[in-house]
Write a structure and sequence with these properties.
single chain; mainly alpha; elongated
Amino acid sequence: MKDNQGTNEWDGDEGVDEDNIDALEQQKELEEAHQHFLIRDFGELVLELGPHAVIGQMDEEVKDELIMAFQQNFNNLKKGV
């Protein structure tokens, strides 16, 4: 909120910060919900088509990330973590 050249008049942006924060929080909630549904749908796709069919359609970078995650998860299970 800036005043206009030393006067007591404001440039009319009062309340915008709260509205922006509410909009950002709502957007974040929508993105989290969307991510949740994508992950759920991915799991259903793996069960329906089989893991080999789904993994076979992924980029190499994605496959590498999944392999590392599964290996880490497996190692943690072996250690009892």
